[in-house]
Design goal:
240 residues, alpha+beta, BirA Bifunctional Protein, domain 2, SH3 type barrels, 2 domains, seven-stranded mixed beta sheet, five-stranded antiparallel beta sheet, 5 helices, globular, binds biotin
Length: 240
């Protein structure tokens, strides 16, 4: 369903879920999102008429709650697939856990909200924002870019939404068919800074150098720091 304007497609999806049972795979999209929600309570900036803002409602009841990172891999890869298709010559990567980067700039963000029932996932709202034709950003954090800035050309918003839905469906079917190994493999292959020594900061403020080795079984970032191996949750590490 395409909305002319909405505060947040994620909020709209949650409101739908609270009063009905929308079909699995229902997509709510808009080109004018006025109060987009980002990760950890942040705001998601999107100039009206320039970008894709979309939320998919899914019922991954086949997935145990402790495996929810697999869903994160699946959605991240679908967005990666679309951006890579648009920028075949560029280094597109997935910054753990689910930002899509071109070089060292963020082109897309993902906000996945799961409702759990006991040990299973009852429903998911997977919100995706992709910067398409926006040329300037009010907030310079974290290094925003768009397809327009990367190519110097405008991209047809209306064609990209169905393409994104196709990628989402393909990756979701992969997840449903328990193709966990290729999903994990693709995610790790495209992981930003994987295998490179780089600078990070702990939540305490302490800076350190480390190398991303991969992801552990619950989706934490696995790093080599000196001779030690340490795993980090989202709020425990900052890329600098
Ligand atoms: C992030 O902080 O990186 C996540 C941004 C997620 C933005 C998308 S846009 C569509 C959906 N609706 C929202 O309110 N947020 C997500």
């Amino acid at each position: 369903m395409e909305l002319p304007e909405v505060d947040s497609t994620n909020s709209f999806a949650h409101a739908l879920l609270s009063k009905s049972k929308p079909a699995d795979g229902t997509v709510i999209s808009t080109f004018c999102q006025t109060a987009g929600r980002g990760q950890v309570g942040s705001h998601w900036e999107s100039e009206p008429g320039k970008n894709i803002s979309l939320s998919a409602i899914l019922y991954p009841d086949f997935l145990e709650a402790k495996k929810q990172f697999q869903l994160n891999q699946c959605i991240s890869l679908a967005v990666f697939d679309l951006v890579k298709n648009c920028l075949p010559e560029r280094r597109v990567s997935i910054k753990w856990p689910n930002d899509i980067y071109v070089g060292s700039r963020k082109i897309a963000g993902i906000l996945i909200q799961n409702a759990l029932i006991n040990t299973q996932i009852r429903s998911t709202v997977a919100g995706i924002g992709i910067n398409i034709n926006q040329a300037t950003f009010l907030s310079n954090l974290p290094n925003p870019t768009s397809l327009l800035l990367e190519t110097g050309q405008e991209h047809p918003l209306h064609n990209l939404v169905p393409q994104l839905c196709e990628h989402l469906e393909a990756r979701y079917l992969q997840l449903k068919a328990e193709k966990i190994v290729p999903l994990r493999h693709d995610y790790l292959r495209h992981l930003y800074r994987s295998g490179q020594l780089a600078n990070y900061q702990r939540s305490s403020g302490e800076a350190f150098q480390g190398t991303i080795l991969g992801i552990d079984e619950i989706g934490r970032l696995k790093m080599e720091i000196g001779s030690e191996i340490e795993c980090f949750d989202l709020k425990e590490i900052r890329f600098i």
